[in-house]
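Good day; I would like, with your permission, to put a structural problem before you. The record follows directly beneath this note:
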Amino acid sequence: MQQPWIHKAKTDSIFILSPSFLVVAIVFLFQKQLQQIETRYSFYTWLFLIVFIDVAHVYATLFKTYFVANEFQKRKKLLIGLPILCFLIGIVLFSFGSKVFWSVMAYIAVFHFIRQQYGFMRLYARNESKKWAWIDNLIIYTATIYPMLYWFLSSPREFNWFVENEFLHFESPFLIMVLSWIYGCILLFYVVRTSYFGVKNNYINIPKNAILLGTILSWFFGIVYFNNDLIFTLLNVVSHGIPYIALIYLNEIDKKTTKELHSLYYFKHFKGLLLFIVVLLLIAFSEEYLWEILVWKEQLSGTTEDFSNWYFLIVPLLTVPQFTHYLLDGFIWKKNNISKSE
């Protein structure tokens, strides 16, 4: 059996599969240096991790939806109506207070991050029998949900998703112990089963298992093992953002012919890749610049104006791209155009 690569073995391995493993390795090899970076270079970690990866990956969705003429026409009502709906929901949520707003956004973000890992896993398992798909589902959800439950049930962590106290907490060492045993047993079952059938069939689905292992490592070490804001951000953002940007470019631009791309053919090949990256970085920086001058005022100094009276409109409006990305992803990948035989 051939390996079910999305693009090619080399590109999948570098840009989709390796980020989780690479960041985990960096964390273990350079812990002391990371502490110094977190203290001395917070602006640059914010710029690189939050703006150039996390925010940029949100706008990569444009190259599968709004920037694709036939795709936009096909989903016109959804693509126009969903941002408006997100804005209105944001206004309603913010009317209950900023804490409620960011708490709901955090839960939606967690769900989105979990589902992305599930989505990658299903893409790489697309040629396999659906009979045992529930086992893969069990593993990927265990790898992501257990760390979040650990977060909810443990003492306050040194990191957050958006703002402090965004999640409900109920400290329970007993429940953590029970869940940890269940977690360990399920992972042991995964290792034994994969090894057994790998030897029996003389075949292991490399990309699928790489996604599973990478998810296990990045979520466990980012949330459970380490209690550090920069490490959490590194493992959370890089493992999520880089593979998504790569998936969009490799599958929606590089893999398609010039005729299929229409106006997007400018983004094909090496110069096109650079243009693709520049477009994402410019849009991401523009959005985050607005956040900084209108709301946060943490990384970019120079503005003293107070816009707090307009937060009920500004915050929901600035959140529209992110909120839309979270919800839209549930529609645009349901019937993917990745062929079943590579």
In short: The longest helix spans residues 173-201. The chain has 13 helices and no strands. The radius of gyration is 21 Å. The mean pLDDT is 90.
